[in-house]
Amino acid sequence: MISVDRISKSYGSGENVVHALDNVSLNIAKGEIFGVVGQSGAGKSTLIRTINSLERPDSGTVTVDGQNMNLLQGAQLRSARHNIGMIFQHFNLLSSRTVQSNVELSLEITGMDRGARRKRAAEILDLVGLSGKATAYPAQLSGGQKQRVGIARALASKPSVLLSDEATSALDPETTQQILDLIRQLSRELGLTVLLITHEMDVVKRICDSAAVMSQGRILEQGTVEGLLTTEKSLLGQALFPLGEIPLNGNTIIEITFNGVTTDRPVIAQLARTYNIDVGILGAAIETVHGHQTGRTRLELPGSAETVAAAIADLRGQGLFVEVIGC
Amino acid sequence: MLDRNDPSFWSDLFQTILQGAGETLYTVGFSLLFTVIFGLAAGVVLVTTETGGLLAKPFGSRTLGIVINKLLDLLVNVGRSIPFIILMILLIPFTRMLVGSFIGPTAAIVPLTIAGIPFFARLVEIGIREVPVGLIEAAESLGATRWTILAKVMVAEAVPALALGLSTTIVGLIGYSAMVGAVGGGGLGDVAFRYGYQRYSPEYMFAVVILLIVFVQLFQSLGNFAARRLSHR
Ligand SMILES: Nc1ncnc2c1ncn2[C@@H]1O[C@H](COP(=O)(O)OP(=O)(O)O)[C@@H](O)[C@H]1O
Ligand SMILES: [Mg+2]
């Protein structure tokens, strides 16, 4: 649905040049929720803004729904944008318009007539759970409600893509959760493809199917969230399940990554029994990543090299992802 | 010297002041109309022809955008730095060409408008500049045309600031209108000059001052009220 092919973009020149995007490529499948995480200044906003051509890359191509966004101008670009909704960290609602009227702006732009606009706006406000607030002004709403209006405005023209630039970064954790749930629910119901960027790993864990980690204009890793978690030395995995410093005391230290299938089994207890080792649990982080139990456990395995090797082989035999991180 | 014991003194005063007030409102009203039209346009162009603005490249040329921006900025500064009394005299030939005479309330509209435009344009510029860029981006992301962004985002969001700017402009124009009045433009300034200054009547002077204060108070409060009502921030 969205394909970003080797795009670069720099600002400034000479000594002050900033490579906001450095040869970035991404592929986002239809209906997927794709997260891009990275620290402030990593180039995330620049990246998302190239998708709807608010920013043009210096080189490389951006394709959305089969259309090369770089080549579009004028009316063609505007009509491509009707198909790409966008929501923002600071909501960007018009203070002079009511909630209903803010949503209708999107439809005024697509040229819908008044009656149809009314109907569609009411429909979409209902979908985001704000029907009671149609005549309120943005200043009278909470942050979460403002973002719901933002979502309604972005989706009013029935786009197939939703771009989210730090949409939950100004919200408290509880509201963040509600907005993320809403985005996920809408993306499923409407078949939306979502690209969301964030500096919070948590957001990726909560709703993304796939993700990329970005730093200094480059993509460091990308893939499905579950895939990344079971990738050796994955930044995303380590960031999502921080287990702290590794103690070095001569014993073998391993990390096991669980996925949905294996979390129900008493893996560790079985290991201790079968091989008669005093398994030490050094750290564990189990989280629900969009519906699946996923997590990491760091274990200390004392004992002879042969026993430990046999135990590890056994775990791997059970389909678990095992990493030896110290011995 | 007027005789205040003359039986027709007070009714004459009333008549004269009423006519003067009518002329002042006429002059200020029309100059305001033109000031708003041209000042709004000038203010919008000033903001949008800046680097990265909506009209940064009129007809695809950034050079043209820069030229328009700099020229307009210069005109506005020049207009605002010439003292009104001098501007008025400078404009006499222009006024005569446009209206046929430089005497009377209609002729007074010309210098008032010329002085009002740069004044209001700056206020418009300031008001529009305060609209957060994020709103413009949001409209762009929805696929809005430049015209829609100008009208429905930039100007619409600046309306409360524009209402305040408008009342400030009216007050300024009332002050200028008194000056034009004194040199033949009619209105309350003319009354104050002819009766108060040339014929030493404190009653006329006093009546003019009171009326001007009432006008200024009225328009300023109206502006403040409108700005408050129109703002939903
Ligand atoms: N319009 C711009 N002009 C100059 N530098 C910019 C501009 N936009 C972004 N940058 C720079 O590009 C880098 C990436 O910015 P951005 O994409 O906003 O990062 P993020 O959204 O990840 O915080 C930063 O160093 C930023 O200063
Ligand atoms: Mg950003």
From TrEMBL, chain A:
Residues 2-241 form the ABC transporter domain. Keywords: Amino-acid transport, ATP-binding, Cell membrane, Membrane, Nucleotide-binding, Translocase, Transport. GO terms for molecular function: ATP binding; ATP hydrolysis activity. InterPro entries: AAA+_ATPase, ABC_transporter-like_ATP-bd, ABC_transporter-like_CS, ACT-like_dom_sf, MetN_ABC, MetN_ABC_transporter-like, NIL_domain, P-loop_NTPase. One of its GO terms (cellular component) is plasma membrane. SUPFAM superfamilies: ACT-like (SSF55021), P-loop containing nucleoside triphosphate hydrolases (SSF52540). One of its GO terms (biological process) is amino acid transport. Part of the ABC transporter FtsEX involved in cellular division. Has ATPase activity. Homodimer. Forms a membrane-associated complex with FtsX. Belongs to the ABC transporter superfamily. This is Methionine ABC transporter ATP-binding protein.
TrEMBL record, chain B:
Residues 21-223 form the ABC transmembrane type-1 domain. It comes from Arthrobacter psychrolactophilus. It is a multi-pass membrane protein. Pfam families: BPD_transp_1. It comes from the Bacteria. Belongs to the binding-protein-dependent transport system permease family. GO terms for cellular component: plasma membrane. This is ABC transporter permease. It is found in: Cell membrane. The chain crosses the membrane at residues 25-47, 71-92, 98-121, 161-184, 204-227. Keywords: Cell membrane, Membrane, Transmembrane, Transmembrane helix, Transport. GO terms for biological process: D-methionine transmembrane transport. InterPro entries: AA_ABC_Transporter_Permease, MetI-like, MetI-like_sf.
